[in-house]
Structure formats: structure tokens, C-alpha cells
Amino acid sequence: MTATKTPTERPPAQRVVRRAGDRLFAGSAKGSGIFILVVLAGVAAFLIGEAIPALTAPAEDVPGGEGLSGYIAPLVLGTLLGAVLALLVATPLAVGIALFVTYYAPRRIAAGLGYAIDLLAAIPSVVYGFWGLAVLAPALVPFHVWAADHLGWLPLFAGPASTSGRTMLTVGLVLAVMILPIISAIAREVFSQAPALHREAALALGATRWEMIKMAVLPYGKSGVIAGAMLGLGRALGETMAVAIVLSGGAGATLNLISSSNPSTIASNIALRFPEATGLGINTLIASGLVLFVITLAVNMLARWIVNRRADFSGAN
Amino acid sequence: MSTSTQSPTRVAEEPGGAIRRNRRLPRYAPLGLYVAGIALGAVLSALTGFSIALTAVYGAVLGTLAVYTGARAVEGRRKATDRLVTALVTTAFAIAMVPLVSLVYTVLDKGLARFDAQFFTNSMFRVVGEGGGAYHAVLGTVVITAVTAVISVPIGLLTAIYLVEYGTGRLKKAITFFVDVMTGIPSIVAGLFAFALFTLLFGNDVRLGLMGSAALAVLMIPVVVRSCEEVLKLVPNELREASYALGVPKWRTIVKVVLPTAVAGLGTGITLAVARVIGETAPLLITVGLVTGTNLNPFDGRMATLPVFAYYQLTQPGTDTQAFLDRAWTAALVLIILVMVLNVVARLISRFFAPKTGR
Amino acid sequence: MAKRIEVSDLNIYYGDFLAVEGVNVSIEPRSITALIGPSGCGKSTFLRSLNRMHEVIPGARVEGKVVMDGQDLYGADTDPVDVRRHIGMVFQRPNPFPTMSIYDNVIAGNRLNGKKMKKAESDDVVERALRGANLWNEVKDRLDRPGSGLSGGQQQRLCIARAIAVGPDVLLMDEPCSALDPISTLAIEDLMTELKDRFTIVIVTHNMQQAARVSESTGFFNLNGVGQPGRLIEFNPTEKIFSNPDQKATEDYISGRFG
Ligand SMILES: Nc1ncnc2c1ncn2[C@@H]1O[C@H](COP(=O)(O)OP(=O)(O)OP(=O)(O)O)[C@@H](O)[C@H]1O
Ligand SMILES: [Mg+2]
């Protein structure tokens, strides 16, 4: 009856009796969470482990004969080129789409239109590859010719124009379509959360719809759009199949977007070479995958950081 | 935003007193101007060989210009800018619809050629030219996706439960953060991971359906966690407390009150997560490979899957090229149908399993 | 059945924040005890610490002793889940389980605990609980309809039925009528008066008339200022509290010269 403990001992909440069922269930839930961390650590560890042979091999044994960095550098360039191009095209479009769906489209159909955009995200990337190869690439050939003729003074459009359209330019546009729904989904969300009070205040001052958006919506949604763009960038950097199918890559580093010799991207290069690779070739490809992993990780962490910082202020939850 | 502070003042500058009668463009003027723009665009594009695409582009540009100048003259600069932005924003949406429509049309157009019974009943075993089908690949995709779901759903759901019901402090923060990070892992990297893991266990030449599932699970788990977490957070705390107050242990409360209340959302989220991985190609390409015959055992050797099947039919056609291309497009069509069906199922789940309030 | 609860030197914390300090009180069986006091003084907190619902909140803990008929509720070998089976609780807002029918809601306490029951037996439990909560006549024809389809007052009585179906000794009610109209409030007050023959009832209320109407004893909680812990200022028979309280603060609060 009388407690043998002095009142100053452990507070009672810490000597809670826990049932076996509770302990088991809580344990497995926690275990699953820890398992995920282990998997992620495993991803990094296994990639590093399999990449080490390529890191330590003599330069002439690495495919291409110019050492690991000589092999990966053009791939990194190609990866960045395609992804940045996609980002530059997709971001303004996505902002426009998000504004259209949230503030311009008639209320009744806005949700349906948003759903149509979301469908873009549901289409498997291999199908985008098919479409890029069969439709977009040939359709862009005239533009390639035109750009080579009129914009040739820019290194980006130095030409000669590809006759198949399977260029970095086409890849960038396919990637832009693929990341459009990602960016616009986030932009839509932040735009629709812009405080109604500010929006109504702007309208009450006699602002036009665009002025209202400029005053009350865009400033509020800016960081959300940036974060969405970063997530889209992450996706574009890692996109494999669409690039592997559309791009005729494999040439060295070049900024030329419209010629038939393009640098490959890390991901598509792995997809194309891996099935036939052996020995050190595999290690080299895995090393390049590790580089991709690090790049996307950095981009995604940055994006999450922006999103989370914003969440702290938005007062959601 | 320098302009944003100006707008109100500009409003105030306008003559005060009685409300001015709005000078506005006639209601149908913008529509008329656009029609005129398109007509002119058709003429322009006819100069270089008529094309619908060019007509649309010219029409949009000319129409927008006409509306802008018209509005500028009649309604003033601010209204004109407003109309210009409206046009731009609408155009952005229209541009986004172009690839969607074009893609769906193309896949239907090219995919229907082989969308027949043979495609779904035959494998590619000993087929070198016409005929054959993706029976083996469709089933392979179903098997591998099912195994992926069997791995991912319990782990993902339990993790979500941990985050919402149990998690505290640093571990919770770490898991949340790294799950977010995990959603960004490129699919090819997930494939490399599975490859590296299984090579370590079974030697260099191993190719298994299970490897593919492991790779896909890396992609699916974070999606399951995120969506389940969102849904579980929506379950009102009052219900948990009501259950605790009846002397129900926490784990039974979660299993019998929280999960049933959230079942619609969980089902929707998990279905969408399946839809997300069912079309993944890259990781399967390097872990599962492709075979021509039917192998439904994920623990034994290479398997055929629909996306990889489509890819190889397209990129490595045999002598009878058209037959290979037809099969490739049909496979793409089937893939899209699968994804769409899953999306529709997800919506139906959320409609039919939502708790009935009766009020 | 109904049991006495003795509370001694109870301090209740949310993390490091001391919300309620130094409560000593003895709650009589087969009677209704009302707790009154200004908002934020810790009535709900105290009530929830009586059946160990308090510690459900992360970081929340208590010091001191709560003894029910000789058993230390916070003893080292006491299972909080068991405590809650003996001390039921009804919340401010009616919270029937939305996925369950009326029938399933009432039997939830047994079902959720995995108790196997014959149909006849559970039918019997449901009917007795619903009759006990004065709800039987209103819902007996639609036991299989969702519980959330009832009116607010009916839902609250459903929650009471759900609580008594478990067969507790004590019923804690946290402002059970504050979300209800006057008619439903009267129905629940009548119900409480009936139930007190079988249960020890503790009720938190902001309604002085309600406390005066239904309770035998009343405790007045107060706090000195924001961030200060709440204290039980006075605990006396209801008649005395409302006619001739010992403390000046109690008198001020009751006569409305306060907060
Ligand atoms: N979950 C919680 N976490 C931290 N502090 C809390 C929590 N719940 C209540 N408190 C604090 O504990 C103190 C007492 O709160 P409590 O809800 O018990 O007051 P109350 O007397 O029931 O008020 P009311 O009459 O408004 O219901 C308050 O200062 C409150 O801010
Ligand atoms: Mg309260």
C-alpha cells in the first residue's frame, strides 16, 4: 500500500506498465521507421562499396580510357544541361498553369482541369520516351534547322542541326513536360493558400485580378514555387528512360543543344550500358550512379529545407 | 514588389466623386478578335505550307495582341495588362494540354493495332516476327508489383503509424526528413542499390524478380509513408481519446479505431503508390532483365515486365520491324490503361470507403 | 460498484509546466461531485488525471497519489489501461466512432478489447446501457445506423451508454452539456441523477445552476495568474459552497464578481 519510494523519486509517468501487445506493436512500428533509415544508409553504403573498384582502378582501365572523372564529367554536363533546360521551360509554364487553375478557370471545372494536369504525372516515363521519339523529335526538326540558321552565333545552337531531332533540346522539352505537374501541383497548393484576407483587401482597393495576384498571391507563394522547382529539378536530373530513348547521346562534352552529337546523361547512360556491362564497367557505372545520387540528394534536401522553412511560418497544423 | 504598392495609389488618383461608368470592351469583342487572329494566322501559315500548329500559334499571338491593343485604347493600361495576363495564363494551360492530348492520341493510334486477344494470351517464346504478345510481361509486372506492395505496404504503413502515433524527438524528425529525401531518389539509383545488394549476397550474375521488387520498394515505401501519414493525421484525436477512455490499449485503438476510420484514405494512397511504381522501367532493366518465355517465380531468374518489354520491343526490333513497333506501342497503351485504372480505383476507394456520417 | 477516490498532494505537469498543484480531496461514492472554476484553472487536467488519461498527452505526468478503494492508481504495478476500464469518461464534445453503428458504438469497449461475447449477451449489454443512458426508446429501431447520424444530445447520451457498457465504477464527465441545447441538457442531468445510485460521478461544469442542481459536493479551482498552477481552493457540500463558502474567492466567483 504505502509506497516505498520517496516522493522525489522518478515521476510516475515513467513507470508506466506497458502491455505485451503494446510493446510489440510500438516496437514493430519503430522498427519499420528505423529500417527505412537503414535502407537509405544501405543505398549509400552499397553504392560506395561497388564504386570503390572504379575509383582505385588505373585510368586506362576505366571505359573510355581517360579515368573515372574523364568518364563521368561529360555525363554530369549532359545531366545538368537537360535538367536545367527543362526547369527553365517548365517553371514559368507551371506558374501560369497554377494561376489558371486556382484563379482564372471557372470554379466548376477548375478541379477537373487540375486533375488533367495531374494525369501528366501518372504517365510512365517510358511512354514519354516513346512519345518524344515518335512525335516530339520529328516535330522539332524544323525548329532545329531554323535555330541553326538564325541563332547559330549562340554556342547553344551552334549546329549543325540534327536531322532526327533526338537532341538535348528535345530531351529538355520532354523533361519539362514530365516535371510540369510536379511544379504546378506545389504552386497550386501554395497559391490557393494565399490568405483570403489579403486577396480580398487587394480587390477591395480596386485592384484588377492580376494586380491582386501580384500583391497578395505571388509574394506569398514564392518560396513554394522555388521549392517545387527544386523538386522538379531533382526529378529531371534522375529521369532515365525518356532520355535513354529520345537522346542520341554518347558524344563528349558540348553545350550544343541541337546537333546530333550530344553528351549522354548519367541515368540514361547507366540504363543503356548496364545490361551489357561486365567487371570494371559495372563499377564505373555504379560510381556514376553514386554521383547522381549525391547531386539529387543535395537538390532534394535543399528543396525540403525550403518547404519546411515555409511550413514553420504558414501556421499549417 | 515595387508595383504592388503603387496599385492602390493609382486607384486613388482616378477622379473621385461619382462612380465612373466603366468603359469596357463589348462583351464579345475578345472572342471576335481571337477568331480574326486565327483566320489571319491561317492565311499566314498557308504562305509557308499550311499547318494547324502554326495557325494556332499565329492565331494566339495575333489575337492576344489585338485584344491587348483594343483594351489599352478603350479600357486603359491596367485593364489591358490584366487581359494580357489572362491570355498568357490560359495559354500556359493550353500548352500543357498539348503534350497530354498528343501523347494519348499517339499511344491510342499506334497501340490499337495489336490490342487484340493474341497480345494478352501469347508470350514472345519462339516468336521472331509477327504475332506473339505480352502475356508473360503483363503477368510478370503483376507479380513483381504485388511482391513490391507486399514489402512496401507493411513497412510504409507501420512507419506512418510510428510517425503519427508514437514518434517523438530526434528519431521522428530524422525519419520524416529521410523519407522526404528518399522520395527524391532517382529510380535508376534504386535499381543500382538492389543490384549491389543482391550481388553481394548471391554473386555477380544474379537476376531475380525479387531484385526488381526490392528496387521498386525503395521507390514505393516513401510514397506509402507520406500518404498514410497525411491520412492518419486527419483522424481526430477525440476518437483516440474516446477509445483510451474505454480502457482500450493503444495498439488496439490504432488497429481498431484509427485505421478503420482512415481506411478510405489509406486505400487511396496505397493504390496511387502502386500506380506510381507499376510503370517504372529503369530499375527493372538492370535487375530483372527480360525473357521471352513466361516466368512467374520472382525467386528464380529473369522475368519479363511490361515496361521493359515495351522498351526492348521499341529499341531492339528484329527483322520484322513493324511487328516489334506495334507490340511496343500496344505495351505502352496497356501500361497507360493500367495506371489510369489504378487512378480511377483510387478515387472509387476514397468515395466508397469514406466513413458514413449520415448527417 | 461505486468507489471512493482519495487524492493526496497531486501535482500535474505538462512537460515542465506545473498546471495543477497540491490537490487533496476525497470524492464520495454514490454521489455527484462538481468541479467549477474559471477557464484554464486545470479542471479538465485534474479530471483526466483521475483515470490516467492525462498521460496520453506526450510529456504529461503527475506526482502524488490517487487511491481508489485502497488501490493506488499510480502504483508501480498498476496498468493505466485497467484504470480506465474502472473509471470511464465522457468528453465535452460527443465523439461516437464514425465507422461504427449505434450498436457497435455501445459495445465498442468490449469489442475493441477483443472480448468474445455471444450475440444474446452483447444484445443484453447494449440494451441495458442504452436504457441506462435513456436512449433506448429513441434508437431501438435503428441500432444498425451510424452513430454519427444522431443529434448532438443523442450522441452525447450514446457516449454515456458506451462508457457505462464497460461496467465502470466511476464516471468522469468534462462539461458534458456544453455543446447541447437546454432540453438535451436536462435529459442528461436527469440521467446523472439516476446514474449516481450506481456510480461515483465527477463532473466539470461552467454552469453554476447545473452544479447546484445535480451535485452533492463541489470543488472550486482557481489560479492566481497566468502561468501559475491551478489549485483546489475549496471543497465543500454544494449547499455550503453556494450559500456560505469558506473562501472569499469562491464567493466572488459564484456571485459573478470574477473572471
Ligand atoms: N495539452 C496541453 N499541453 C500543455 N498545456 C496544457 C495542455 N492542456 C492544457 N494545458 C494547460 O493547462 C492549464 C489547465 O488547462 P485545463 O484544460 O485543465 O483548464 P480547464 O480548467 O479545463 O479550462 P476550461 O474551463 O477552459 O476547460 C492551462 O494553463 C492550459 O494552458
Ligand atoms: Mg476544460
From TrEMBL, chain A:
The chain crosses the membrane at residues 33-52, 72-105, 126-147, 167-187, 240-260, 280-303. It comes from the Bacteria. It is found in: Cell membrane. GO terms for biological process: phosphate ion transport. CDD domains: TM_PBP2 (cd06261). Keywords: Cell membrane, Membrane, Phosphate transport, Transmembrane, Transmembrane helix, Transport. Its main location: membrane. The lineage of its organism: Bacteria, Bacillati, Actinomycetota, Actinomycetes, Geodermatophilales. GO terms for cellular component: plasma membrane. Part of the binding-protein-dependent transport system for phosphate; probably responsible for the translocation of the substrate across the membrane. The keyword Iron-sulfur does not apply. SUPFAM superfamilies: MetI-like. Belongs to the binding-protein-dependent transport system permease family. CysTW subfamily. This is Phosphate transport system permease protein.
UniProtKB/TrEMBL annotation, chain B:
Residues 138-346 form the ABC transmembrane type-1 domain. It comes from the Bacteria. Pfam families: BPD_transp_1. InterPro entries: MetI-like (IPR000515), MetI-like_sf (IPR035906), Phosphate_PstA (IPR005672), Phosphate_transprt_permease (IPR051408). Keywords: Cell membrane, Membrane, Phosphate transport, Transmembrane, Transmembrane helix, Transport. GO terms for molecular function: phosphate transmembrane transporter activity. One of its GO terms (biological process) is phosphate ion transmembrane transport. It is a multi-pass membrane protein. Coiled coil: none annotated. One of its GO terms (cellular component) is plasma membrane. The keyword Iron-sulfur does not apply. It is found in: Cell membrane. The chain crosses the membrane at residues 28-46, 52-71, 83-108, 134-163, 175-202, 208-225, 257-278, 328-349. Part of the binding-protein-dependent transport system for phosphate; probably responsible for the translocation of the substrate across the membrane. PANTHER family: PHOSPHATE TRANSPORT SYSTEM PERMEASE PROTEIN PSTA. Belongs to the binding-protein-dependent transport system permease family. CysTW subfamily. This is Phosphate transport system permease protein PstA. It comes from Geodermatophilus tzadiensis.
UniProtKB/TrEMBL annotation, chain C:
The keyword Transport applies. Residues 5-248 form the ABC transporter domain. GO terms for molecular function: ATP binding; ATP hydrolysis activity; phosphate transmembrane transporter activity. Keywords: ATP-binding, Nucleotide-binding, Translocase, Transport. One of its GO terms (cellular component) is membrane. This is Phosphate transport system ATP-binding protein. NCBIfam families: 3a0107s01c2. SMART domains: AAA. Gene3D superfamilies: P-loop containing nucleotide triphosphate hydrolases. The keyword Transmembrane does not apply. GO terms for biological process: phosphate ion transmembrane transport. It holds the Pfam family ABC_tran.
